[in-house]
Write a structure and sequence with these properties.
Helices cover about 0% and strands about 30% of the residues. The protein contains no helices and 9 strands. It has strands at about 15, 25, 35-40, 45-50, 60, 70, 75-80, 90, 95. The strands form 2 sheets. It has a 6-stranded mixed β-sheet with strand order 4-3-1-2-5-8, with no helix packed on it. A 3-stranded antiparallel β-sheet has the order 6-7-9, with no helix packed on it. The protein starts with 13 loop residues before the first strand and ends in a 23-residue tail after the last strand.
Length: about 120
Amino acid sequence: MNDEIALRVVMMTEGFQIDIADNVATLLGDAEAGMVRLRGQSAVQEIRLTQPIKTGHKVALCTLESGAAIVKYGVVIGEATRSIGVGEWVHLHNCRSRYDAQSSTLNIETGTREETPYV
């Protein structure tokens, strides 16, 4: 092997689509904007993230118009409050619960109530 040849391994962040009906996937690691590999029940796909997304957070697998159902675990967990593009972070700033009105007022970073100290 030629000593001048350097091999670079690029680790691609992965995520998973829990149910085939889900229109969001959950990341298994922090990811910068760029390509991520998503595993589903029947396939592996790659999508381009439009922004950094943290471990455990959701990414849109398709365009979600305002009012569209957010589906995870094969069930509706909320609705889009504005249009959300493919590869965009899906969280408190662009969706709300259909079951819990208070969730729309939670801190976007911590997920806690604003008056609750987070340490």
